[in-house]
Write a structure and sequence with these properties.
mainly alpha, 11% strand
């Protein structure tokens, strides 16, 4: 069974797609989860993403939450603010 990320890879030129697929399999990346979540969120009201191995903890028993959720309106607001900051930096 191919996931969305695998289908995307096969649309790339053969050498690029093969290298990306090999790298993704080596590091067991969470990219397919994110891609699937984004596609499902485009029809829904909220985007939710879990990053299970996002942090390496040092001398901590418990780290920050690895669960992120964002509604469509919040995402658009983040995007607008990001564009304003980029324009001010230029």
């Amino acid at each position: 069974m191919m996931n969305i990320y695998t289908k995307f890879i096969f649309r790339l030129p053969s050498n690029v797609g093969r290298l990306l697929l090999q790298q993704q399999q080596k590091i067991n990346s969470s990219i397919p989860l994110l891609t699937t979540s984004i596609r499902e969120a485009s029809t829904g009201s909220a985007l939710e993403y879990d990053a299970p191995n996002a942090y390496k903890l040092h001398m901590l028993d418990q780290g920050p939450s690895t669960h992120v959720s964002c509604t469509r309106d919040e995402g658009l607001e983040f995007y607008r603010k990001m564009q304003v900051v980029r324009q001010m930096e230029a």
